[in-house]
Amino acid sequence: MSFKAPATMMEFFRKSEGIWFIERNVHHFDVTESESGESNLIVDVIEPNNSKVADVCALQDINPQLAMGGASFRWMATTDEKEPNENYAAILIDIPEDETKRTGKLIRNKGYVEGIPVVSRYWFGDDGVLTINTDYDNNQGQERAWFLNDDFRIRVSSVRMMNGVNLVTYCSERRCVSPENLATMQTQHAEN
Q1: CB–CB of 136/113 below 8 Å?
Q2: Chunked in runs of 10, what are the mean pLDDT values of the chain (192 residues)?
Q3: Rounded to whole angstroms, how far apart are CA atoms 99 and 102?
Q4: What are the chain's domains?
Q5: Apex CA 28: angle with CA 111 and CA 140, to 5°?
Q6: Strand 33-46 with 130-135, pairing
Q7: For residue 20, is it left (φ>0), alpha (ψ between -120 and 50) or beta?
């Protein structure tokens, strides 16, 4: 099976659906420190007819009929936790700008940098790299993400405060394989 990079936001969301193990490194320029850590990310696709689409669009006074759908993102320290902390969750809704659906707006119920509803601009390059620019009240963020294959992706981001770049983050994200899929993979490997 050959790999095909997503070229639209809904393709990106569908390819991202599942549980991801994240290793991240964050460099804070204002205190010349770095930090690293691990976490899990749970991504669920939201279809256009889901009531969450209308709810999030209403926060920005945007017609939900323009939405192609979206995704919910929930971060956890580990999958051993009982439930994700809602303070580390966001819903993103895709509003493409044209027929190609390679560029558009992401309507978020909560931004990554500032926990407020926000509208981001996105586009996909010919190389499959997704770029998302977000202007917050006091910050500007840029995130770039791309898949190396179906089960591994890279994410880099920067946040610029009014006085310049404040932090840069690098994340490698590996899809967690379910026990059922692992058993199937082991069977296929044994047969080859």
Answers
A1: yes
A2: 90 96 87 81 96 94 96 82 72 96 94 76 96 89 96 94 82 87 75 76
A3: 8
A4: 9-191 (2.40.128.20)
A5: 35
A6: unpaired
A7: beta
Q: Which of 61, 58, 55, 50 is nearest to 10 (CA)?
A: 50
Alpha-carbon distance of 135 to 116, in angstroms, equals 11
Nearest to 6 by CA among 186, 171, 147, 191: 147
User: Taking CA 185 as the corner, what is the angle to CA 179 and CA 191, rounded to the nearest 5 degrees?
Assistant: 140
User: What's the pLDDT score for residue 34?
Assistant: 79
C-alpha–C-alpha distance, residues 27 and 155, integer Å: 14
What is the number of residues in the chain?
Answer: 192
pLDDT score for 5 = 94
| Of 127, 63, 135, residue with least CA distance to 93 | 63
